[in-house]
Task: structure prediction
Amino acid sequence: MLVKRAEQAMVRAKSAALKSVGLSPSQYVALFELDQQPGITAATLARACLVTPQAMMILLKTMEQQGLIHRSSHPRHPNVLELHMTEVGREALHAARERVDPIEQTVFSAFSAKETAAFRDFLSRFIHAFEGSDS
Result:
């Protein structure tokens, strides 16, 4: 339960910060991923955001209506749609990062540099243990 409580505390804090810029946590994660991988497909974005393709399509429709993203045909595969952030999306991501980054800094400032390194290592091992068990 400790991991779940920590996750919920982080989600609550980030949700409140993101609300002030008009983004949901899901939209923030999607914009963050699009910033890292411009031109990815909805299916790839859904996997990166850990949501179903159906949930991603609903999210993308809303984001497109808000002017945060646009879709365009792949140059060599016309049936494949690439996703790109608009300038409005970039501005929203920048504003969101200004509010979310301090939250993460607050968390890590509660630990010494050595503890932070160990914490990151523990979390990486935690994730790896689950990813390794999927096979």
Remarks:
- DSSP finds six helices and two strands in the chain.
- The mean pLDDT is 91.
- The first helix runs from residue 2 to 19.
